[in-house]
Amino acid sequence: LLNHIPVPQEKFLQFNKYNDEKVFKKYNISADTPFILSSGLLKFSKGTDLLLSSYSCYRENVSNPLPLFIIGDIKSNAIYDKIKKAKEVYYFKSMPRPELLLLMKSSSLNINLSHSEGMPRFCLEALALKTKVILPQGIPEFDINCKDWVAKSKNNLLILAQQFHWAINNKN
C-alpha cells in the first residue's frame, strides 16, 4: 500500500529565472571557478566536522584541490571557528532556495556526510539536478540505488578524500 504524502516545495527549476551572473556576483564567486558545495544545518551531528576534516585531507592529497563552499545556519561556535580556520573553505549564510539550487547545479561536487538523516532534501535536489554528489551512509534508498555515490566511510578521512577526488573526476 502506497500513500502519497505531499511535500510543499517551490517549482524545482524555478532557479532558471535567475541571472546566473548576478547570483555569482552577489556572492563574490567567479562563474567559471569549479568548487565543492555542502549545504544544510551546520552542526556536529550533521557531519560538519567530518566534512571539514575530510576536506582538509583532500587538500593535502590532491595537487589542485577545489575550494569548498559551505551554505547554511551554524549551530555551534566550535563549528564556526573550524570553518574560519580551514583553508579554502568559504561560508555563506542561508540563501534563497533558487540561488542555492543554481550554486548546486554549478558545483563540481555536492557533499552531505550527515550522521543523522532520514531523506535529506539537499541530496534529493542534487540528484534531481543531475549533479555529482557524495551521499550520507545509512539511507537504504541511497545504499541500494546509488552505491558508488554513498560515502565510503564514516570516519576515515583519507578514504573520503579519495572519494571526493574520484567523484570530481568521474565522467558519469
Descriptive account of the structure:
The model has no long low-confidence stretch (mean pLDDT 87). Helix 2 (48-61) packs across helix 7 (157-169). The chain has a five-stranded parallel sheet with strand order 3-2-1-4-5, sandwiched between helices. Helix content is 39%, strand content 10%. The chain is globular and about 40 Å long. The protein has seven helices and five strands, in the order H-E-H-E-H-E-H-E-H-E-H-H. The chain has 172 residues and is of the alpha/beta class.
- Please tell me how large the radius of gyration is: 16 Å
**Whole-number mean pLDDT:** 87
Kindly estimate the percentage of residues that lie in beta strands according to DSSP: 5-15%
Order of helices and strands: HEHEHEHEHEHH
Strands, total number? 5
Percentage of helical residues? Answer: 25-40%
Low-confidence stretches: none
State the shape.
Answer: globular
* Alpha carbon gap, first and last residue: 35 Å
